[in-house]
Amino acid sequence: MSEDLPTEEYEVVVVGGGPAGQTAALYSTRLGHQTALVDRGGGRAAMMQEVHNLIGVREETSGNEFLGVGKEQLEEYGCDLHRDMLTSCHRTEDGSVELCGNSANYRAAYVVLATGFNDVRPDPPLPRTGRGLHYCLHCDAHMFVDESVYVMGHSESAAHVAAIMLNFTDEVDLLTRGENPEWSDETDQMLEDHPIDVVHEDVAGVQNGGDGWLKALEFDDGSIREYKGGFAMYGAEYNNGLARELGCDLNDDGTVAVDDHGQTSVGEVYAVGDLTPGHNQVPIALADGAKAGISIHFGLRDFPRDPDAVEAAGPVRSEEVPGIPDDLIEQAVDFHTYD
Predict the structure, then answer these.
(1) Domain housing 192
(2) Are the CB atoms for 17 and 41 separated by under 8 Å?
(3) Which residues form the FAD/NAD(P)-binding domain (predicted)?
(4) How much is the pLDDT for 3?
(5) Residue 217 dihedral angles phi and psi, to the nearest 5°
(6) pLDDT by residue (tens digit) across 303-339?
(7) Residue 273's closest CA among 15, 7, 9?
(8) pLDDT at 339
(9) Domain boundary among 172, 203, 232
C-alpha cells in the first residue's frame, strides 16, 4: 500500500466492471451497502460487437453500450465508480481487505473479484475480433448457420468445437496452423468419421470484405479458403492474481473455487463471472453477480439484530432504523419514479 495515496473505505468493493461485477455492485448498492466498483477498463464484454443471448437487449447493442448503461445505473443508485488498476491486496489487522491501486487504496469488509480472463490469441495474421475471429461458441455459433467456418487450434477442445459446429453448418475446417495435433487417437478417429477438413498449413494472410468482415484466409501453400468466420481455441489466462494474494483456493485450470453463492475459500471474499468455473455467458455472469450481492447482504445487514447483541444493548430503538446509510437513502428517494 502506498502511504501517499488516499484510502477509500466501503462496506463492499467490487473489482471488475463486466456484467458480473456490475450486477454484484448493483445488488449491494440497492440493498443498502456503501459500495464501490473499481474497474481498469476493457475486458471481454467490452469487446463484444453485439450482445447475444440476453433477453431484453437488442442484438445491435454493443458490449460498450451495454456496460455504459450499467455504469449509469450504478451511479444513479449511489455506487462509487473508480477507474483504477489494482496492483496488490492484503488483509488488515481488523480483518478488512486492503486493495492497492495506482490512484487510491480501497478498504472493504467484503470484496467481490470479477476480474475474468483473457482469451489466448493465436499469432497473426488474424481476422478482426468480432468480424471473423470469435471465441465463444455458445454466443456466436448462431451467426454462422449455413456458412463456411473455421476452428483454429490443435487441442482436444478445438477438435470437439469443430465437430459441434457441424450442428450449424456443413462447411467446417479445423486449422492447426502447422502445430502438431494434441488430440487423442479417439478424437482423431472422430474427426475422420465426420466431414471436417483438417488443414495443417499455416495462415499467411487475411482477406476482408468491404464491411470489414472476414472474406477468406490465405495459406502458406498458396491456397485460399473462403470463410464467414470462425473460432480460436487456444485456452484462457485467468486474472486470478488478487485471489491468490488473498489465499483463495484455485482450480487446476486457474479458475477460483467458489460455492453456489460465489463465496471463495476465504471469508468475505467472493468471485463471480468468468473468473469462476462454468459457461462464460453474459446471462450467467449476471446471475453470479446477483447471488453474490444477495449473499453479502445477508452478512452485512443490521436487522434483525442478533439475539446476543439485543441482550447486550437492549431492543432496537426507532432512531436506529432504517439501516441504510443516509446518503443512500437520499439516492433512493431521488431515484424513485413511482410517486
Answers:
(1) 133-232
(2) yes
(3) 10-289
(4) 67
(5) -115, 140
(6) 999 999 999 999 999 999 999 988 998 888 887 756 5
(7) 15
(8) 58
(9) 232
